[in-house]
Design goal:
Layout lengths: L1 H35 L5 H23 L3 H30 L10 H7 L2 H10 L9 E2 L2 E2 H21 L7
Antiparallel strand pairs: 1-2
Helix pairs in contact: 1-2, 1-6, 2-3, 2-6, 3-6, 4-5
Length: 169
C-alpha cells in the first residue's frame, strides 16, 4: 500500500520534482565552480545546457501537461534531451579516461565569439584537454553525476507524463 502511494505521488509530482531537481543541479554546479575555482570546460557547459533544457521543459510541462497532444510532444522532447545529455556525458567520460584523445581547444567564450553557433557547438562536442581535468565530487567524476541526473530526471519526467493519474489528468 505504501509503495503504491509513493509511485502514485511520483507520477503526480514528477514534473515538479524534475523542475526542482534541475534547478538544484544548476545551482550546485555554479556553487562547485565558485568553491573549487575550477572553470567549466566546453562539455561541462553543454551538460549545464541540458539541465537548463530540463528546467524549461518542466516549466512547460507543469503548465500544459493536461493537454494530451502536448503530453506526447513533451515525452518526445524529454526523451531527446535525456538522450543528448547521456551522449555528452559519455563523451566527457571518454575524454577523462583517454586524455590524449583530444588536443588543446579554444575556451567556450572564444568559440562563441569567432565561430557560427553550429560550428562552435561542434567544436564543444569534440572537447578539449580542459575536459580531462580531475573534477570529482565525492570520488566520482562530474560527468558521472550528470549522467545520473539525466537518467533520473528524464526517467521521472517521462514516467509522470506517460499516463497521468486520474487526479492529474
Amino acid at each position: 500500500m505504501n509503495k503504491l502511494f509513493s509511485l502514485k505521488l511520483l507520477k503526480q509530482q514528477g514534473i515538479l520534482l524534475t523542475l526542482i531537481g534541475s534547478a538544484l543541479i544548476l545551482v550546485l554546479a555554479v556553487a562547485y565552480e565558485k568553491i573549487t575555482g575550477l572553470l567549466p570546460c566546453p562539455l561541462c557547459w553543454l551538460q549545464r545546457g541540458i539541465f537548463v533544457g530540463f528546467f524549461l521543459l518542466s516549466l512547460v510541462a507543469f503548465l500544459l501537461k493536461r493537454i494530451t497532444l502536448m503530453r506526447w510532444l513533451l515525452i518526445a522532447a524529454f526523451t531527446l534531451v535525456t538522450t543528448t545529455g547521456i551522449g555528452i556525458a559519455l563523451r566527457h567520460l571518454y575524454i577523462k579516461l583517454n586524455p590524449l584523445s583530444v588536443g588543446c581547444g579554444l575556451d567556450v567564450e572564444t568559440l562563441l565569439d569567432f565561430f557560427p553557433v553550429q560550428e562552435a557547438l561542434t567544436q564543444m562536442l569534440v572537447g578539449s584537454s580542459d575536459c580531462a581535468q580531475a573534477a570529482n565530487l565525492f570520488g566520482l567524476p562530474l560527468p558521472v553525476w550528470s549522467l545520473a541526473g539525466y537518467l533520473l530526471l528524464g526517467g521521472l519526467a517521462v514516467y509522470s507524463l506517460i499516463k497521468p493519474t486520474k487526479s492529474s489528468a
